[in-house]
């Protein structure tokens, strides 16, 4: 039996959000997975296709180098915080970043360092120094505006998935958007209007009767 706390009603439809926390976790790991778990397959499919397509397009525009985890002087990749919103697709960058950290001493990458998986989501070799030629500069030179656009696309995909996570946890907008509530309110107003008019007529009639009685008493 569904937990009443996890069942909401929108536009006369009951939606069982099931385990909200689990749905949110699944939505983070894979866009749309939380909605599939809740049985909301249309939304799940839409989110899965749109967000992952945006992510992969951005990743391709940047030559596969726009997503990496680094928090070293000269290369504080804050963009990854937003990119990580897409979930499992961004997790290899954390593994690569930790691997490079272990092979970095005083901001300089060891000569024996070899990135995992052929450099997939690996941070650039250090040191990364502004205004000097380094691996990041080479990426910009190779991919041009595509590197910048790819960074933005992957960030946007992560941000969009944060909204998807919220929708999986809290459900859709609780206020009906079909117009039914407004129609019901209008019908209530129409019903109340004759009653108010009838009440007003009764009050007027009572006032007239009272006035006539008062005049007869004074005659």
TrEMBL record:
Keywords, alphabetical: Membrane, Transmembrane, Transmembrane helix
Keyword field contains Transit peptide: no
Limits of the DUF6677 domain: 22-180
Residue ranges, annotated region (Disordered): 177-219
Taxonomic superkingdom: Bacteria
InterPro entries: DUF6677
Stretches with biased composition (Low complexity): 194-211
Keyword Kinase set for record: no
Residue spans crossing the bilayer: 44-68, 80-97, 152-175
UniProt name for this protein: DUF6677 domain-containing protein
């Amino acid at each position: 039996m569904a937990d009443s706390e996890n069942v909401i009603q929108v536009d006369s439809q009951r939606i069982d959000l099931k385990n909200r926390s689990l749905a949110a976790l699944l939505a983070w790991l894979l866009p749309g997975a939380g909605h599939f778990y809740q049985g909301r397959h249309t939304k799940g499919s839409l989110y899965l296709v749109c967000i992952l397509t945006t992510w992969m397009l951005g990743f391709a525009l940047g030559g596969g180098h726009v997503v990496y985890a680094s928090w070293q002087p000269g290369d504080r990749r804050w963009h990854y915080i937003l990119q990580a919103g897409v979930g499992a697709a961004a997790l290899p960058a954390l593994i690569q970043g930790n691997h490079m950290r272990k092979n970095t001493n005083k901001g300089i990458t060891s000569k024996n360092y070899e990135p995992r998986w052929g450099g997939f989501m690996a941070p650039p070799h250090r040191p990364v120094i502004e205004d000097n030629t380094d691996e990041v500069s080479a990426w910009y030179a190779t991919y041009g505006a595509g590197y910048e656009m790819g960074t933005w696309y992957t960030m946007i995909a992560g941000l969009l998935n944060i909204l998807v996570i919220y929708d999986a946890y809290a459900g859709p907008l609780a206020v009906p958007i079909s117009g039914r509530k407004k129609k019901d309110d209008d019908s209530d107003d129409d019903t109340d209007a004759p009653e108010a008019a009838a009440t007003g007529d009764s009050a007027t009639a009572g006032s007239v009767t009272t006035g006539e009685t008062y005049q007869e008493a004074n005659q």
